[in-house]
Recover the amino acids of this structure.
């Protein structure tokens, strides 16, 4: 049940992206789903503790998932496993959320609407730029040092 819930939580994190082509595998979201699954395990076991009489197994489960929580939280907070491609693949869905909310929010103040429109425009441009970089890096590897940022569309 916990594994299924964790997998579902990972998938649910993508429901607020603006477009399906903004969904990429994200290590950061994976680590987040896993630390949430760890906490869920602790909570569920705590509520059902009287159903499981083996104290040693319960202590081992609590200890194991507490360690897992610390590991996955550390991975999220440190971003130690996130390189160029993983970073962009995590940022595209993140930017996509900004696109969704900026486009669909019911904004009445013209200043706020203008800000939302500016955010919408820049986030879409940055998503396109990251997609180009992902394709280029996957095909050709890293650009040489000193290569200027390509912001063309």
């Amino acid at each position: 049940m916990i594994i299924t819930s964790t997998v579902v939580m990972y998938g649910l994190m993508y429901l607020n992206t603006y477009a399906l082509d903004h969904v990429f595998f994200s290590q950061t979201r994976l680590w987040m789903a896993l630390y949430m699954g760890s906490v869920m395990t602790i909570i569920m076991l705590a509520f059902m503790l009287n159903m499981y009489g083996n104290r040693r197994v319960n202590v081992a489960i609590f200890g194991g998932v507490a360690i897992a929580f610390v590991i996955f939280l550390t991975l999220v907070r440190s971003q130690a496993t996130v390189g160029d491609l993983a970073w962009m693949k995590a940022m595209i869905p993140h930017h996509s959320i900004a696109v969704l909310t900026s486009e669909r929010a019911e904004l009445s103040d013209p200043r706020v609407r203008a800000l939302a429109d500016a955010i919408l425009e820049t986030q879409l441009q940055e998503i396109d730029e990251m997609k180009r970089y992902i394709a280029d890096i996957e095909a050709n590897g890293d650009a040489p040092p000193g290569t200027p940022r390509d912001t063309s569309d």
The CA atoms of residues 105 and 116 lie 9 Å apart.
